Amino acid sequence: MSLFFWIFLPFLLELNSAQASGVWFSRQPQNLTVSQGNAVRLGCAVQGLSEPDIVWRKDQTRIYSTDQMFLSLGELHWETFYSVRSVQQQDGGRYWCEVESEGQTFSSETAWITVEGVPHFTAEPQDLAVVPGEAFNLSCAAVGPPDPVEVLWWVGGEQVGGAEASPSTLHVSGANDSDKFYCEAKNTRGVSVSRTATLQVKVFPSAPEDLKVENLEENNVTVSWSPGFSGFSPLTTCSVQVLGPQVQVQVQVQVQVQVPPHRVSVSGLRSYSDFSLRVSCRNQLGSSPPSAWINFTTAESVPMVAPKNLTFDLSDSQLILQWAGLEEAELQGKLQAYKVQWSLGSETQEPLLFKESWAILSGPTRFLNASVQVSACTSVGCGPWSRPVLILPEPVPLLAPRRHLWPGILLGLLGASVLGLMLAFGAQRRRKDSHFSFKGVASDSLVSFSAARSFSRTEPPEVDLDSLGVSAELKNKLQDVLIPKRQLSLGHVLGKGEFGSVREAELKTADRVQKVAVKVLKNDVTTSCDVEQCLREAANMKDFSHRNVIQLIGVSLHPRPGHRLPVPMVVLPFMKHGDLHTFLLLSRLGEEPFSLELQTLVRFMLDVAQGMNYLSHKNIIHRDLAARNCMLDQDLVVCVADFGLSRRIYSGDYYRQGSASKLPVKWIALESLSDNVYTSQSDVWAFGVTMWEVMTRGQTPYPGVENSEIYEYLIKGERLKKPPDCRPDIYELMHSCWSPVPKCRPSFSALVSQLQTLLLSLESNPQPSAPLLYVNLQEGAGLQDQGVESQNTWTQSHDWSSVGSGGDYRYIMSPCSEEDERDEEEDTVINV
Q1: Is the pTM of this model over 0.90?
Q2: Which of 231, 529, 624, 771 is the most exposed place for a label (fewest CB within 10 A)?
Q3: Which of 624, 642, 653, 683 is an active site residue?
Q4: Which of 380-384, 531-535, 815-819 has the lowest mean pLDDT?
């Protein structure tokens, strides 16, 4: 009795307190045990309050219910319920109700809702990466009620072991292949299945990617890279290997994968030297293969040492200075000149610059008792000075008595003074005409010297547009984009052909170094017309500003020793993925083929159409649109390129008909082949062929048809066949570009609109869309007279060879509207 009293004493005290305040619970919640999915309801009644706010709580958390109702059982007596229509495991717990009165909170007794059903998991299997062959454990835990709960494991679709009481740990002795696994939990109510986890077996990481130079200085370089596939194990360190011109330097750098970007600065490198660098990263199993080598050249610096062995030879007519030239490693750059500084007494004279390691100076008397020193200079600046050498005459032997010596000396000095004044006056006049501006010398920005005697020029001078004899209009267009040749460093060849090449290059400006592509004509340029043809292509590109049209960076003219004309170079942005035709071929036939989704191919077509739409609005007719003349940047955005030079790079796709120039006949419109007439609509024909190239991943158009047979093939009404796996609506669109009547072909604006709609449908709905139909064909007597049934719609897959019974199909009556026919004469036509 005593124990019962002490257990219920707190409740009795609370009840007495509630009754003392006039508030008490006339009905308490009751413990309930229900099956999962059934309904449950708890009740609670309070007496002593007018319209009380009764609140339900579960495990100290208030329950907010939108359908809670209060029932009046009498004066100051209210009842409420909490119900769950379909109880679940998470509804199980401890419940009670509360009410407040005059700053006091009164609580009912607590009740438990116990939910019986299939087990629910408290710990499910998680994805796991393991070392090959090493043992590991898998864990799974589930609870009822009802209990007990048993756990059964499934690995790779097969049951492993027998049932175990929950929680369960499965010991696996080792794995060599990736697999899937899960667990089942079972009690008397049924079975629950956990999430399916993936077991990955750790492998060596792959090579780092996108290795690039971020910052380049005279003695150090900063490189960054993207980690490759980690091999299901976090990367820990990366090793950077640098190969110099003579010795190998290896630097170990610790890089955490979780802190990108990955980069390292390598210092202590030799200035103005070529280096190669690659990176390898390591995970738990070992090191990845090294990345591809990247090459770079450190920046120039001032020479590290002064020229040595400065000597002089003084005679009556000249002063000869000689010194030992610096080696390449000592220069730390490209030698610009040797700077000779001389001072007489305490006065420093104007310095002189010489290309060779010797100098011949006239007027030797003005250098008597002068102190001379020399330093080497690069484009960055000049290095340290050599030890000063004092210019003194050779000792004169005493052949006469002392009393006859002084008159001879005085006469000699007088003659030397007169001669020195004359030579100084002449040198002063020459200095007014000869000045050499030297970059990087802090103390003297302008120095004078005798150009004929003291400076030997071995390199040809810069070439300007005035010396080429090109038209004044072309010269004015290119004057502000001319790039000095010293700012270009040419690299390896990206592509070449019959008449020229495209090379990778670095363009050095005042604030950065930019990777570019340079189009170079071959060295057999013999006439100004060859140069002008290349430069005119650049002039056409000067004012282009569109993301899908390649933009001109500049033009550079590189002189050639022994030739009157320079080599013209057109500087363009560097396109990481090259031309679209090669990219498409690599997707099928490369060493590592890759798949291209239909959305990607349509996006390629849309990019080309947008670029051509921009050109057509600027009244530019490309005349050579093809996949080979479209470039892909690093984001796989297509840019229309090659306004003239490309036909020389891909000469195999061009055919010479009669005495005409070579033509890309498989891309040329029917009217261009017959009449040599080019319009924007003939570019639309070529765009349709380009679409066919994209859908076939770079196949050659009209397989089995020779270039010389193309015209006869087309005039019969034949066209490119539908590529395999090509959607009908895409083929209908490209087929519409090959109408024999130019005005019936869609404009580039219409093509852009239809491709945008097609791309949007592909991204939102992967199912094939209905074929596109092109309408607005009038019922005309012309077609009826030729035996064709009158119709208001005409799909562009219509067989043109069925129109009429014979003859030249270039002159079929236009199936377009009369309004289109009236506007046809207003098209701009270029006769070539």
Answers
A1: no
A2: 529
A3: 624
A4: 815-819
